[in-house]
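Progress note, sequence design subtask.
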C-alpha cells in the first residue's frame, strides 16, 4: 500500500471506469491540500478531510472477500497513524446493496439518511 500522486491519475481513471462506468479526471483531487489517495494493486481509497482528524472516504477496490476487508483496515490504520485521523465518514447511495453491506461488515455505524444517501461513520 502506498500514497498515490499525480503520476497515478491514469490508473485511477481506469479503476473509476471499471467500477463506475466512466473515467474521471482526478487532477483536482491532488490539487487540494489534505486529500489523500491510498493505492494497492488496481484499486484504492480516497480520503477527503472535512475537519481536523475527520475524513470522508470513497473506495474503488479490485480486491474482494477477506482481502478487501484486511486492506481496508490497514488503510484506516495508516490514516490514523500517519495523518491523525480520528473519524471516518461515508455517504453511500441508498440502492447500493453491496457497498452498504461491505460498510456494515466493516463495523461502520449508520448515522442517518440525507438526499438519497445513507451516512456511516467509523472511529
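Output:
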Amino acid at each position: 500500500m502506498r500514497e498515490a500522486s499525480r503520476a497515478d491519475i491514469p490508473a485511477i481513471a481506469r479503476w473509476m471506469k471499471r467500477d463506475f462506468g466512466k473515467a474521471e479526471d482526478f487532477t483536482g483531487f491532488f490539487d487540494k491540500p489534505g486529500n489523500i489517495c491510498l493505492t494497492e494493486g488496481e484499486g484504492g481509497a480516497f480520503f477527503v478531510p472535512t475537519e481536523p482528524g475527520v475524513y470522508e472516504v470513497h473506495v474503488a477496490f479490485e480486491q474482494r472477500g477477506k482481502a478487501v476487508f484486511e486492506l481496508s483496515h490497514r488503510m484506516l490504520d495508516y490514516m490514523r497513524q500517519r495523518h491523525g485521523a480520528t473519524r471516518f465518514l461515508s455517504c453511500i447511495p441508498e440502492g447500493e446493496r453491496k457497498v452498504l453491506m461491505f460498510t456494515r461488515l466493516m463495523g461502520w455505524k449508520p448515522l442517518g439518511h440525507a438526499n438519497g444517501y445513507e451516512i456511516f461513520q467509523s472511529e
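Residues 66-83 form the longest helix (18 residues). Work on this subtask will continue into the next period as scheduled.
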